[in-house]
Structures are given as C-alpha cells and as structure tokens.
Design brief:
This protein is α+β, with helices and mostly antiparallel strands and about 300 residues long. About 15% of the residues lie in helices and about 35% in strands. Helix 1 (about 15-30) links the parallel strand 1 and strand 2.
C-alpha cells in the first residue's frame, strides 16, 4: 500500500481540520497515511547554565516517516514549512506545501487549489525542486554544544541593551576578516528573500550554488553583503566580551560566548519541494514581494507601450 505523510500546524484550527479530511480522503484512495505536527521540527533554546540543548539533525525525523513515503503534505505557513524541511530533508521526502498561513512565500498552493493539486500529485504529474540547506553548529573548544539544519538562515546578533558586536569571520581557507555590526547573517539562496533581504542583501535565485553573508547594521561603509561558493565553510569567532544570541530560521537557538566558534556549511541534506507547474521564481517574487511592479502610478488616460 503506498504511503503518504501529513505535517500540519496544530495551533491553526483550519490546518487541523484539513489534515483530518485529507487523511480520510487518502485512505479512501488506498493510501496509508502517517501524520505529525510541525512542532516536532522546532529547535530548542539552550541557556548559559544548560548549553547542550539540541536534538541531533537525523533524530528530528518523525516516527514512521521514512524513504518509503511517496510525498508529504505540509499544512501551514512558512514557519511550518521551515520546520517540516528540518524533519523531512534527512530522508529526502518530497514536500507539497499548502498555505494556511499569511504570506506563504515557501508554499506551492492555497487551500482552494488543494483538491485538483492532490489529484495531479497522485497521478505523478509534478517535478521536484531541490533547495540547499545549512548545517549550523556551535563549538566550545572542541565540544559540540548545539546544531541545527536550516533552510533559510543562521543569525548571530547582540543581546538587547548591549553595544555593537565585533566578529572575526573566516570563509574557507581565505584570510579572516573583521566586521563590526549588530549581527551577522549566513543564508542560503532560499533565505536570501528572508532576513537577509531586510538587511540589504541581494536576492539570489534558488538554483545558484552559493551562500551569502550579510552584516546587520554594519559600522562601516565597506561592510556589505558577500556572496560566495557553497563549497566554502564559514567559521565565526566572537571578538567582543559580550555574549550574543544565535537564531536559526527565526525559530530557536543558543547563546554564543566570547570563546565559542560558530560553524556553518552547506548541508548534505536538501529540501525537496513538489512543483506542479514550471518553476518561475520571478513570478513568486512579484506576487509575494511586489518585485518588478511599477513604482509610479500611471494615469489610465495614458496609453502604455
């Protein structure tokens, strides 16, 4: 019997309702269905008194979710998709993301499109788009204190009520650089339209094999976002006496102390997204972020070329 998974946001009543209806419909079509909530992919927060507080990346896979699943339907907003990507990427399960949230930048369709889309997927009429992810780790001396899988970005920033931070950053085997800023963002191409975009970084199309480093409010006109090959690793050393905070995908994280080292690199795991039509990234940018729209209202009496 073919097997399908459902990941849903259990704090949204509509997602819970649709998950139940989908399970009944898929069972009636001869599918075995396993379900889980997106909270299983949420990251924990470590504390200075309890720094080791994480679940190893491979252990985030939900029970009964394995390589035998044909695909998984994710019901929620972008936060649920980010969580589901951490849960499903290690076993390569394709994700059909259905928007029950707000912007839904990462989702493929809306609820009113679900019925025909499901028929299309069950008929095998779709393509798979791979999105690269980050492996993020925090080391204290040689001890691994925290790790996470990230689809969007890793951010290190200052605590509230503290001053600007200094970072020593080494990309690959290149010479280290010093940056003074409120924080540092390391993002994937998918994450280039998230926090990195808000910090002045460029938009990177998802198929480009690069990573991006963007300073947050840098104290230098020369400190700008940097795009580099995703074959390079990134090591960040705090160069400030204040402790800082690391957050992954806007979800969970840990404290970073002055002698710690933060490591980020392209993960061996990728997120697999089901696409029901030819991928058109610029269309998504236009619909979700207004990219390329006219910035000056044109009078209706003027004939446009």
């Amino acid at each position: 019997m073919p097997k399908v998974g459902i990941v849903y946001n259990d704090i949204k009543p509509i997602a819970c309702q649709i998950a139940l209806e989908l399970q009944e419909k898929l069972n009636a079509c001869g599918y075995s269905v396993v379900t889980t909530t997106g909270c299983g992919g949420l990251l924990g927060y470590s504390q200075p008194s309890h720094p080791v507080c994480y679940t190893p990346i491979e252990q985030l896979i939900p029970p009964e979710f394995d390589a035998d699943l044909l695909f998984a339907i994710v019901l929620g907003g972008d936060g649920t998709v980010l969580s589901a990507a951490r849960q499903l990427a290690p076993c390569g399960i394709p994700i059909l993301a259905v928007n029950t949230g707000h912007m839904g930048f990462l989702t493929e369709l809306y609820l009113n499109q679900l019925s025909p889309a499901l028929e299309q997927v069950m008929n095998g009429d779709y393509t798979i788009e791979k999105r690269s992810m980050l492996t993020v780790r925090l080391y204290r001396e040689q001890t691994l204190l925290w790790e996470a899988l990230s689809l969007n970005e890793m951010v290190i920033h200052r605590e509230p009520l503290t001053s600007m931070c200094h970072f020593e950053i080494q990309i690959g085997h290149h010479a280290p650089v010093d940056i003074a800023a409120d924080g540092i963002i390391v993002s994937t191409p998918t994450g280039s339209t998230a926090y990195s975009l808000s910090s002045g970084g460029p938009v990177v199309t998802p198929n480009v094999p690069v990573l991006q480093l963007a300073p947050i409010c840098p104290h230098s006109l020369a400190s700008r976002a940097l795009v580099f090959s995703d074959t390079e690793t990134v090591n960040i050393y705090p160069a400030t006496p204040n402790r800082m905070i690391m957050v992954v995908d806007g979800n969970g994280g840990c404290y970073v102390l002055p002698d710690d080292r933060v490591y980020a690199a392209k993960s061996p795991y990728s997120a697999h997204f089901i696409r029901l039509q030819s991928t058109e990234f610029f269309r998504v940018l236009r619909e979700k972020l207004g990219w390329g729209l006219p910035h000056i209202a044109k009078p209706t009496s003027v004939e446009l070329p």
